[in-house]
Amino acid sequence: MSDVSIPPKVLEIADGIKTMRIRGAGKIGRAAAEALKIAAEEYNGPRDSSLFKKYIGRVADILISTRPTAVSLPNAVMFVLSSLRDQYGFDEARSAIVGAANRFIEESLNAVKKISEMGAKRIKENSIILTHCHSSVAVNTITEAYRQGKVVKVYSTETRPFYQGRITTTQLLNNGVPVVQIPDSAVRYVMNDVDYVVIGADTIASNGAVINKIGTSQVALAAKEARVRVYVVAESYKFSPITLVGELVPIEFRDPSEVVPEEWLKQHPGVKVLNPSFDVTPPEYIDAIVTEVGVIPPQSAILVLMERLGWALEKIKQGLSISTIRFEDLLE
Ligand SMILES: O=P(O)(O)OC[C@H]1O[C@H](OP(=O)(O)O)[C@H](O)[C@@H]1O
Question: What does UniProt list as catalytic (predicted)?
């Protein structure tokens, strides 16, 4: 069965996520849904539902293994796969995957729009905002607040080592928003000037802790010291069901060459480099999380999990853990 080949476009998406050509938690989730859709449409094996499900499971496993931290990835995959029913024949199974993938992508884009509108409402006139890394939800929220005439300036951190902050800076600039690029180390220096920190999230734990780009917790610490409000803008599929049963969110560590050039490392062979991609900001450092289902205090994260990801909780209760799951074995 493993002979049924996986379409090159699907492998290209998986590689794009791994190498961060495709990045940003929401985009990763939508790309995974798109990949499952392509895999279903271009399946060229026998028209047998159990072989098809096993093949889709194999694709799901490849997608999930690309990056570990953003829960939007496994949540998107689980959303699409949970459309399969035991009694489905081949055609039904194939169209269930395509339909669910389309639904995920559409609902995801709608959620981003809704959050931007709700988030912009929380910003007062004449505000100075600081953002960290590149979150498409944060960029949309800030842009919407700017269109409503509320934003006078945005500080955008460069976000070493991958410099996603430069994407934020150029996107805001293209949207007409006055933006100032700062190095990450200047966050505390400017914080007394700032009215709001607006950031995205890769994963939100059931206790309201936010896992976001490395450096976020330092930004939140500086904001707390200066009594600046911190808003997290994130879709409900960024809430992690496995954290409800005590599992930790895995933090991704990336290659040392993102931090220092390989040439420099060769010249200094004794130097060890640590390159964590994400950190954890505790709920006490966050004023509100803006989701498409409402604005909540971080301590209410569990309610979003119950309301939006009840289907995933059912699977977890049955003993499934997304971090150890192999969809290929499951979908026989
Ligand atoms: O979904 P949106 O809001 O676009 O992004 C959410 C988060 O995803 C990004 O991770 P990476 O750059 O893929 O490591 C950043 O940490 C960003 O805050």
Answer: 133 (proton acceptor), 202 (proton donor)
